[in-house]
Each structure stands twice: as structure tokens, then as C-alpha cells.
């Protein structure tokens, strides 16, 4: 990882970040081709921040930064994988000007390290549309393993779309 990308750090969401986070989740020009799912409650993130600071035992959100500049957001939530087992499902949205520089790869790697260091779950997974090759490359560079195609998995822009599922488990970190 080059020096600039290695300077990416994650931190909790601050009130000053909320306008950017709203833009990245509720503005079709900012979300990107694969992240626009239609308009939603514009006050949702602000209320969630006021209630929980975006950090609970079930889910969370952090902002990746570089030199104090907010690059976007990473988020996760707990998903059931069996009667008594769970994994983390994570996502990433970068500001348009932060895309294509390796920041997403760094942020995803940092989130995996954070979740494994501070929780007991064994697996982190992520999905992305099959047409989102940039995110697939980013996940692979971040240490995720491609597991397969989920047919008709997500509805966006008037049609059902296939996705690819990726994962990393604790023992994968020992190999890298």
C-alpha cells in the first residue's frame, strides 16, 4: 500500500460528518452507480447519530479519513448464520472524489481488523453487484475471498440484480 493510502484511519462519526453522510446515502449524484436505491428518510442518520452515536452491539458506522478529510463511510451489522451463530455484514460508500485511489481497500481492511480486535465474531462478509468490478477488486485486495454469485439478490433501478459475496474469517488474517 502506498504511503498516502496507508494514512487512512477510521474514527467514530461526528456531528460535522452528518451532512456528507446524508449526501452519500440520499443523493443520486454522490452515491455512485451501484449505491443509489432511491430516496429515503433524510433525517434517519441524524436521529441514529443522536440516539447511538452510530455504534451499538448490533451495528455501527465509522468514517475513514485521510489527513482529517472524511472519505466516506464504512458500516456493519450483525447477521444470523445459524441458530446460535452470527457474522458481520459490512458496506462501504466513498465520496466521489475519494474513489479510485485505494482508500476503500484500506478502509475495508481497517474495518475487518477493528471488528476482529473488538468483537468475538469469526466472519465478516460483503456483497456487491456483479457489475461492480471496482468494488470486487477492492475487496480482494483487502483480503476477502470471493465465495460465489447470489442470483437475483438485490433490487435497484427497477430490476433484480445478481451480487457476488465475499468473506474474510479470523484465520485469514494470520495468513497475510
UniProtKB/TrEMBL annotation:
Residues 8-165 form the N-acetyltransferase domain. GO terms for cellular component: cytoplasm. InterPro entries: Acyl_CoA_acyltransferase (IPR016181), GNAT_dom (IPR000182), Ribosomal_N-acetyltransferase (IPR051908). GO terms for molecular function: protein N-terminal-serine acetyltransferase activity; protein-N-terminal-alanine acetyltransferase activity. Keywords: Transferase. SUPFAM superfamilies: Acyl-CoA N-acyltransferases (Nat). The keyword Transferase applies. The keyword DNA damage does not apply. This is N-acetyltransferase. It comes from Amycolatopsis balhimycina DSM 5908.
Amino acid at each position: 500500500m502506498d504511503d498516502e493510502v496507508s494514512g487512512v484511519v477510521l474514527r467514530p462519526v461526528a456531528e460535522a460528518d452528518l451532512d456528507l453522510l446524508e449526501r452519500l446515502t440520499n443523493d443520486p449524484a454522490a452515491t455512485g452507480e451501484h449505491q443509489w436505491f432511491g430516496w429515503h428518510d433524510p433525517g434517519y442518520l441524524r436521529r441514529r447519530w443522536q440516539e447511538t452515536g452510530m455504534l451499538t452491539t448490533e451495528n455501527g458506522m465509522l468514517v475513514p479519513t485521510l489527513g482529517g478529510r472524511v472519505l466516506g463511510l464504512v458500516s456493519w451489522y450483525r447477521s444470523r448464520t445459524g441458530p446460535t451463530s452470527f457474522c458481520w455484514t459490512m458496506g462501504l460508500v466513498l465520496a466521489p472524489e475519494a474513489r479510485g485511489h485505494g482508500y476503500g481497500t484500506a478502509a475495508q481492511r481497517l474495518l475487518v481488523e477493528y471488528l476482529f480486535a473488538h468483537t468475538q465474531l469469526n466472519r465478516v462478509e460483503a456483497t456487491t453487484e456483479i457489475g461492480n468490478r471496482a468494488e470486487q477488486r477492492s475487496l480482494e485486495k483487502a483480503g476477502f475471498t470471493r465465495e460465489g454469485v447470489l442470483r437475483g439478490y438485490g433490487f435497484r433501478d427497477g430490476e433484480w440484480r445478481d451480487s457476488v459475496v465475499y468473506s474474510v474469517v479470523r484465520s485469514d488474517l494470520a495468513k497475510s
